[in-house]
Specification:
Strand order of the largest sheet: 2-5-8-11-14-17-20-23-26-29-31-32
CATH class of one domain: Mainly Beta
Number of strands: 32
Largest sheet: 12 strands, mixed
Number of helices: 0
Radius of gyration: 19 Å
Strand content: 25-35%
Structural class: mainly beta
Distance between the termini: 52 Å
Shape: globular
CATH superfamily of one domain: Hexapeptide repeat proteins
Helix content: under 10%
Amino acid sequence: MISANAVIKTSSIGDNTEIKDFVVIQQDVEIGKNVIIHPHVTIDSGTIIGNRVEVFPGAYIGKEPKGAGATVRKLNFAHKIIINDNCSIGPNSIIYYDVEIGNNTLIGDNASIREGVRIGEYCILSRGVTVNYNTHIGNRTKIMDLSHITGNCDIGDDVFISVLVATTNDRAIGKLGYEEERIQGPKIGNQVAIGAGANILPGVKIGDRSIIAAGSLVNKDVPTGKMVAGSPARLLKTISE
C-alpha cells in the first residue's frame, strides 16, 4: 500500500511494500519486497533497499556531505547507498551517501552514519551512535548508546562496544590540518570488548579477544588476548582462550 500523501518518483518498488504518509522517495531508488517505510522518511536518489527492511519515521537516507567551507578534509563519496535484507533503520537516523549496511543489521534511533562507512551483517548500532567517515565495521558487532566511532577506523567481527565510548583520530587535535596518512582512528580486532566510557586514542591497535575495562584511557597498542584498565590503561592480565 502506498499512501496518496507520499511523493514517489521511482517505479522500482517490490511487492507487498508499504509506504506511509508524507514519505518522499526520489528517482533512481530501488526498494525490495515486504518493506515498510513509515511517515516522514526521505530517501534520495541512488539508494537500494533490500527485502523486509523497515524504516521508521523521520529517517533520512541519502544525505549528501557538505563542508560549508569549514571542513578541511576533502569530501569524496559515491552517490549510492545499499541497505541489505532484513535491516531496521530507527527513527530520525541519518545515513549519508556511500554507505553499505549488511543483512539483519539494526540502526538505532538518532544514529548518524557518515560517507564511506561499511557495516557488516547482524550488527547493532544503538541509539545515538555516531559513525564517522571511511570506517569499516565487521559482522555481529554491537555498538551501544551514545558511543562515537571516529573517521578512518576499523572494527572487526564480534566486537562489543559499550555506552559512551569515545574514539579519536588526530593526536594533534586539529592543529596540523588534515593529512589522510596521519589522521587514523583505532584498529580494533575481532572479539574485543570495550567497557562503558572508555577513551581510545588515535592509531591505537587493539588485538583480538582483548578487553578494555570501563573508563580506561587507551593511549598505546593492546596485544592480543589482554585485559587493560586505568588512565592511562595498563595491563591487568592475559585472557584465557
